[in-house]
Amino acid sequence: MNEGGPINSQARTHDPAGSVLSVLYDRGDAFISRDELVAAAGLRRGQLEEALAELRRRGQQVEQSPAHGLRLSGPVRPHPLLIEKGLGTRRVGGSVICFDEVESTNDVAFDSARSGADGLAVLAESQRRGRGRLGRTWLSSSGANVLISVLLIGRASPPAPEPLTIAAGLAASEALDAFGAESRLKWPNDVLLDGAKAAGVMVEIRGRAAVVGFGVNVNAAPPPSEVDFPATCLADSLGHPVERIELVRELLRRLDAWVEHVDADRLEGLAEAFAARCDTLNRRVTVRHGGREHVGRAIDVSPFEGLVLLCDDGRRLHLPAAGSTILNWR
């Protein structure tokens, strides 16, 4: 699947392969007979082999046993039907598109803003030009991790980047913890496991549209030689592989809840929740912003003004997330 042929939620009523996938996914590790599968997926018997062939073409692995039937095996590739089913969000993830490869999930999301696709989630197995903050490149092993961007269109005015950045960081941290991790936040956009980076967020604003981009190291992390900060993945932290679809669903639910706080201007609770998870606070840090370096103690995170820094010379600075990077902390 490429940019010209995404798997999308609108195709569900014409997608026998998607119906079969949904039934198999719900069965987990259990086998299901062919007759049961045909009935549960609402297919004619002659459609099953075509549907299975289509699933294999899409990269899904289906194990077949003459004695027991069929079941999914190996990692399951993200599919809109599996992500949207019973998601229960108010705004985020109302529709989902999945690609094999794109230039950038953020760019695809922005391109969809013209159609008013508020809440759209765009996923890809790999990106040719995936980007992080400040011009960096986000590195990710194809088929192992989560690359996702969510489009949010401002109701009356452009979305504010600062509270959305805080909301995104919280959502990513809480999603990892839902699987048994103990993550922490490094302002402005990193999620850490055992002091190493497991996820990053990036908020971009264009006109009335904002895109919240996530890169989550689920089952693989880039090697130390390719990154400037130690990296890890959720699977290494937990000691076992993690089902990416369930992590995506958890991430969308958490983001939806925190975006609702932003929409309702309930920002005090947003900032307090971020501060409770933030390892940057109460540390002496060096922050680069606007071509200058500022040194002092991080004393607070403001949902509109960024990091509050008590500088060594006594000044209090508010440093916005956009354009800021922490050079060192201790």
What do you see in this structure?
The protein is of the alpha+beta class and 330 residues long. It has three domains: 7-73, Arc Repressor Mutant, subunit A (Orthogonal Bundle); 80-276, Bira Bifunctional Protein, Domain 2 (BirA Bifunctional Protein, domain 2), CATH 3.30.930.10; 280-329, SH3 type barrels (Roll). The protein is 30% helix and 28% strand. The strands form three sheets. It has an eight-stranded mixed β-sheet with strand order 1-4-5-6-10-9-8-7. A hairpin with a 2-residue loop joins strand 9 and strand 10. The longest helix is centred in the last third of the chain and has 20 residues, at 244-263. The radius of gyration is 21 Å and the shape is elongated. The N and C termini lie far apart (45 Å). The relative contact order is 0.11.
Question: Would you summarize the structure shown here?
Answer:
With 330 residues, the protein is an alpha+beta fold.
Looking at this protein, list some descriptive labels.
330 residues; alpha+beta; eight-stranded mixed β-sheet; elongated
CATH homologous superfamily descriptor of the largest domain: Bira Bifunctional Protein, Domain 2
Query: Mean pLDDT, as a whole number?
Result: 90
Radius of gyration over C-alpha positions, nearest whole angstrom:
21 Å
State the end-to-end CA separation: 45 Å
State the order of secondary-structure elements, H for helix, E for strand. Answer: EHHHEEHEHEEHEEEEHHHEEEEE
Profile the largest sheet: 8 strands, mixed
Given the C-alpha coordinates, what overall shape results? elongated
Domain module count = 3
- What do we call the CATH topology of the largest domain? BirA Bifunctional Protein, domain 2
The largest beta-sheet arranges its strands as 1-4-5-6-10-9-8-7
What is the count of DSSP helices, taking H or I runs of 4+ residues?
Answer: 9
- What is the percent of helical residues? 25-40%
Report the CATH C-level class of the largest domain. Alpha Beta
Given helix and strand content, the structural type is alpha+beta
- Architecture of the largest domain in CATH? 2-Layer Sandwich
Q: Provide the β-strand percentage band.
A: 25-35%
Question: How many strand units?
Answer: 15
**pLDDT under 50 segments (min length 5)?**
none
